[in-house]
Amino acid sequence: MKCYAKDLVVRNADDEVIVSVDELAVDTGGTTSISGPSGSGKTTLLYCLSGLIKPDEGVVNWEEHNVTTMAGNKLNKFRRENIGFIFQSPFLFDELDPLSNVTIHSAFNTNLSKEAVNEKAKELLDLFKVPLKGRKTASVLSGGEKQRLSMARGLVNNPKIILADEPTASLDKKNSKILMDCLLSYHKDYSPTLVVVSHDSSVLSRFTNNLSLNQRREADA
Ligand SMILES: Nc1ncnc2c1ncn2[C@@H]1O[C@H](COP(=O)(O)OP(=O)(O)O)[C@@H](O)[C@H]1O
Ligand SMILES: [Mg+2]
Q1: Is the beta carbon of 143 within 6 A of some atom in ligand 1?
Q2: Which of 8, 9, 10, 12 to mutate to test ligand 1, by most ligand atoms within 8 A of the CB atom?
């Protein structure tokens, strides 16, 4: 799904500008990274793209869907059906096994049958190199495996859009590379539109399109 965001401005309670983006365009199935130091507004921008935060100015369109003005059930439905989020930390249910951690959220998506979700979850866990055998609970997985399990959970509904907020931030170099290999391999197979926020140069170097929030704000000054 194609993204076009224009003239975005987000202000904080003191009316200070925390995000200012002239233009962000990503083709259907395209990729982009968003970089910038801590506090430069990367997470806020990602939330604007998902419709979770309404900008003070500007517009975010996913094809003909304007998530800047969309609200309530319509926005929830759009996000549920189209957007997969990957977070910085795994946020797993430690008591549940890896497969249940992936499938539990899909219980709220009535578009997919239980069998289809289970099949998809197993496929993703295999693609993301998360071991199932002998793992009764997610708590015994390594840090890298937990983060890839969390990524599988974000993608189990076949989202047309993936928004990833510093997905490698809690990982060492080796596991960071494994996760990015898995994510880009998934992108090659399924071609969702992919937006990855990061300040890690080894992650950013894997994208040809980049929006640097730091430069934008310096240019504004
Ligand atoms: N809920 C909030 N209310 C007020 N200010 C916020 C809120 N969330 C973030 N900020 C501020 O917005 C700016 C950008 O934050 P954030 O988007 O989290 O940056 P980044 O993800 O690049 O580290 C920071 O100055 C931060 O303090
Ligand atoms: Mg952030």
Answers
A1: no
A2: 12
H or E element at residue 197: strand 193-197
Q: Pinpoint the alpha helices (H) of the chain.
A: 42-50, 72-82, 98-103, 114-127, 143-155, 173-190, 201-204, 213-220
Nearest ligand, CA of residue 20? 1
Q: Which CATH class is domain 3-220?
A: alpha beta
Q: Cα–Cα distance between 135 and 99 in angstroms, integer?
A: 10
- Each domain of the chain, given as residue ranges in start order, spans 3-220
**Tens of pLDDT along 6-36?**
999 999 999 999 999 999 999 999 999 999 9
For 111-132, write each residue's pLDDT tens digit: 778 899 999 999 999 999 999 8
- Kindly state if the Cβ of 37 falls inside 6 Å of ligand 1: no
Q: Which ligand is nearest the CA of 89, by number?
A: 2
